[in-house]
Amino acid sequence: MGLQNTLKALADPIRREILELLKQGRLSAGEIAERFPVTAASISRHLSVLKDAGLIRDTREGKYIYYDLNASVLEEILLWIAALKGENDNDQGK
Prior knowledge:
- By secondary structure, the chain is of the alpha+beta class.
- It has one domain (3-87): Arc Repressor Mutant, subunit A (Orthogonal Bundle).
- It has helices spanning 3-10, 13-23, 29-33, 40-52, 71-85, and strands at 27-28, 56-61, 64-69.
- A 3-stranded antiparallel sheet has the order 1-3-2.
- A hairpin with a 2-residue loop joins strand 2 and strand 3 (64-69).
- The longest helix has 15 residues, at 71-85.
- The termini are far apart.
- The mean pLDDT is 89.
């Protein structure tokens, strides 16, 4: 995984929009693809990048693959950004 892969995955607007969709609950690849004006192959590649970055998880059920958000990686990024800004638990009350 790694921070570089995660930030690269977040850099693309379609991938960010996929994450927004998954915030509402799990979706199949087909359900995700029908919401974008790009090919299913393109969405498949975006899903692969998000999965490799650890931002989403997939579950196979029969012939369908469902995707859901992996919020723990996002939490790690937020903690890293907070540390970069110099924030810590003692600064929260200010």
